[in-house]
Every structure is written in C-alpha cells, then in structure tokens.
C-alpha cells in the first residue's frame, strides 16, 4: 500500500506536575483526546513525558497511553527513562512509538552526547545517563519517521542519518523551557528540515502557566506552526511535497513559490568523501572524549 501523502501532526507542549508522578499520565490522556478532536494522526509529547523522568520508576505510563492511542486511532510518541540492562544504576532516555492499534511500534534511546553528565544533578532529572548506539527509523501509514531527542538537534549528523534511511518526518521532543536559546533553537529546527528535505517537529515540557516553551513544526520551505505556550498544536504536513523535493534535480527552482534547494540526497551527497571524514573525526573525538568522572 502506498504511503499516504498528507499527515496532521500534533505536538504537545506538556504541562508537568512534578508532584503528581503517575497523575501526568491522566493529563497525557486528556491531551490525546484534545489532539484527536483536532484531527491529528500522530501526536508527540515532550522529552520523558509523561514519565517517569527520574528514579525511582514508580509507575508505567505505557498501558494507559496504549489504550488512549487505540481509543483515538492515533500514533503516539511518548517519553520516559529506563534502566540499562546489566547496569540498574544507569538509565537510557527513551521515546516510544505507539501505533493506532495500541501496540509498541518502535523505541528510540538517546545516542548523543555520551553520558553521564548531561542529566546528573538536574533540578528535574537526576540520574546516571547512558547513551545508546542505534538510530532507527519506523514505518507508519504515512511513510518512515525518525526520532531524536532535545539537544541532538545540535548534531546534524543524527538527523541526516535518519533522513538517509528514508525518514520524511523527524520528531525532536525536547526537555525543559529554554527561552535563552530560542533564536538558536528556531534556526536549528528549521535548518534540519531544510538540509534534510523533511518535516521537523519539536516541543518542550513546561512547569507553570508563565513558563515559555517552544513548539515548532517545519517543512523545508516554511515554519508551519510555532508557539511558546502550553497546549496542543497541529499542522498539516504535505509529504507529497517532501517526496517531490527529494526527487527533483538540484538545478530545479520554483519561481514565485516558497521553496528550498531540492535534490540534496540524489545529487549532492558523496558517501565516499563524507564517510572517511566522519570516521576520522570520530577517532579524534573518541581519543579526546570526556571521561566518566570528569565535568564537561
């Protein structure tokens, strides 16, 4: 069956009650109901929402979320942390993709940067973070999607690897409000869409009515929706346009229309050059990496 050409994406700027714990799952289910009423196909929550976001792992959000996805016929991306196999004192930051039948369709564990310092001692998170080593993409009725987490937006290689595997939408759920980084985040989220000829979408957790988060949904040609407030925000994403942009030669222009540079993957990419350079950079990075007991 051919992939569908239009998808309505909903990003949830999630309100977190740090005292409620499992009560955040009930709030998440209310967000799903709201997104369904807005005609959403895929709903994405912010990083580690609805939790648990820090040890101890006192509840499991998946049964409720799976039931909600099935009830509303939605694909849902939600977050939590999980113990690392063989190292119960270490944790992965994980996003789970639930399909419209309420089944687990995929999982992504954060890969960048290397642990453990990024989460230790945080006022919201406080655990020994362990990076993972896989960048999967996931099949949906609308085609392939990829997931990255928060500041992985600063690593263009992460989004590029997802796009090269066929991801036409890349979800980048983020953590806590960061108004001091609004300008750079706006630029980075849009840039990842432009350079990968894909849809990019991000959202953040907020903790009080006056918190200012950042939700964005971008195509390669324009910012489709943007908000700093709590709530559910939707955009209709034209995947037929994404496929056209990826298929066209790089010399094609669209006079009088919003447009970007098409043909990046088919005409610009040089794996014989880029792979060698990335391998060399990786070797240097490993040799100079921060030790587990060092501060960045």
Write the H/E string, N to C. EHEHEEEEEEHEHEEEEHHH
The beta-strand count equals: 13
Based on Cα principal axes, name the global outline.
globular
User: Using only CA atoms, what is the Rg?
Assistant: 19 Å
How far do the termini sit from each other?
A: 48 Å
Task: Provide the domain count.
Answer: 1
In summary, what is this structure?
With 296 residues, the chain is of the alpha/beta class. It has one domain: 4-Layer Sandwich (Nitrilase/N-carbamoyl-D-aminoacid amidohydrolase).
Task: Describe the structure using short key phrases.
single chain, 296 residues, alpha/beta, Nitrilase/N-carbamoyl-D-aminoacid amidohydrolase, seven-stranded mixed sheet, six-stranded mixed sheet, 13 strands, disordered C terminus
